[in-house]
Write a structure and sequence with these properties.
Elements: E1 7-15, E2 18-25, E3 32-43, E4 48-60, E5 63-71, H1 79-92, E6 108-114, H2 127-135, H3 139-143, H4 147-153, E7 191-197, E8 201-202, E9 205-206, E10 209-216, E11 228-234, E12 246-247, E13 252-255, E14 259-264, E15 276-281, E16 292-295, E17 307-312, E18 326-333, E19 340-345, E20 350-353
Parallel strand pairs: 5-6, 13-20
Antiparallel strand pairs: 1-2, 3-4, 4-5, 6-7, 8-9, 10-11, 12-14, 14-17, 15-16, 15-18, 18-19
Length: about 375
């Protein structure tokens, strides 16, 4: 469904049960640079990845942004361990992009996941008490007991971030397949979405994020959690140093022959040493769906100082489909922890099979 709406998977990072996928509309692809994934284990003192965080950072039209999914220590009495998990993630989560090494060095931070914060008053507030308060829609009173709000106010954890108070019932713990709470545990708002906006200004432009929604989705019942979602509008600005690689037009790509493509690097964008060009179906749904690739050549054509050529081998096998078109995508890669950026895309083109060699019959 997302492919049909012209969305593309830009990057995926997984650590055991933690999964983070970033999608974008295809029209924005060439404005995503310095894409990097990172992870931090906090389970068993940092040995096991059942708890911790995965993240993906990137520049979006010049604004540095982090998306971080975390799973913190569970159970009501493990509040201090949740705080320690947070501090470990903040301290050890490091990127390799200059001046953006830490999470909070970025313009925008979106931190979400099963944070596992529960309600205070474990000895006096039973699961049944909480369920009754939810039935009475006394969410305002319940949220005052929320551990996350407590540690934020005490500046022990997450105080760098902002959260709109949940206006939906606690999202944990449900009997899977139902809308009923499991009374073996105390219901709580475990699943949260927080954000942070830098106070930096760029050319007198002040950044901001407008949170349009924050809600749970009780219809989903395959888990003992109910998922939550949030929609934001953010202020971005164009980076004047952002350059795009231009490909020479391709009429027909002939399968079974070597094929040379030409591309021009704009001033200010240089081959990073491990750049590559991939060939894709023009309706590709993920940057991982390349059909073939070649590392870029540094041989300059004589005619233009910034124009290069790259030859794909005759062994590249593409399906010949008259309804299918293909594109080339230029990737910048520093070779450091897989940092990449999409810097160019060709116009769509068709392919055809190489015509067979003529055969000759001898006549007596």
């Amino acid at each position: 469904m997302l492919r049909e709406r012209n969305f593309v998977v830009v990057k995926t990072e997984q650590m055991q049960g933690l999964l983070l996928m970033v999608f974008t509309r295809k029209k924005h692809l060439l404005h995503l640079r310095d894409i990097e994934a990172e992870y931090t284990r906090t389970g068993l003192g940092g040995i096991w990845g059942n708890k911790g965080a995965v993240s993906i950072r990137m520049n979006i039209y010049g604004c540095s942004t982090v998306f971080l999914n975390s799973h913190l220590a569970a159970h009501d009495h493990m509040l201090d361990e949740r705080v320690e998990d947070y501090q470990k993630i903040v301290q050890e989560h490091k990127y390799h992009v200059k001046a953006r090494e830490s999470i909070f060095n970025h313009d925008y931070v979106f931190w979400f996941g099963d944070l596992n914060f529960r309600l205070t008053g474990e000895a006096t507030t039973t699961p049944e008490d909480i369920r009754e308060e939810v039935k009475k829609d006394n969410l305002g009173e319940l949220i005052q007991k929320d551990q996350l709000q407590l540690v934020m106010s005490q500046e022990r954890a997450f105080n760098e971030l902002t959260e709109r108070l949940p206006a939906f019932p606690p999202t944990f713990k449900f009997e899977p397949g139902t809308q009923e709470y499991d009374m073996k545990r105390r219901p709580a708002w475990c699943d949260r979405i927080l954000y942070r906006v830098s106070d930096r200004k760029y050319n007198n432009v002040k950044l901001f994020a407008k949170q349009n929604s924050y809600k749970s989705h009780p219809a989903f019942s395959i888990s003992d959690h109910k998922p939550v979602s949030s929609e934001f509008n953010i202020k971005i600005f164009s980076d004047p140093s952002e350059k795009v690689v231009e490909f020479a037009p391709i009429d027909i790509w002939t399968i079974g022959r070597e094929f040379t493509v030409k591309y021009t690097l704009p001033d200010g964008l240089d081959d990073a040493g491990s750049d590559w060009i991939g060939i894709y179906n023009s309706d590709f749904g993920s940057v991982e769906e390349y059909l073939g690739y070649e590392y870029t050549s540094r041989r300059k054509d004589e005619e233009q100082r910034r124009t290069f050529s790259l030859t794909f081998p005759d062994t590249l096998d593409l399906p010949e489909d008259p309804t299918q078109t293909y594109v080339l995508v230029y990737f910048q890669s520093t070779g450091t922890r897989g940092i990449t950026g999409l810097a160019g895309m060709s116009d769509p083109f068709h392919v055809e099979h190489r015509a067979p060699s003529p055969s000759f019959n001898s006549v007596d």
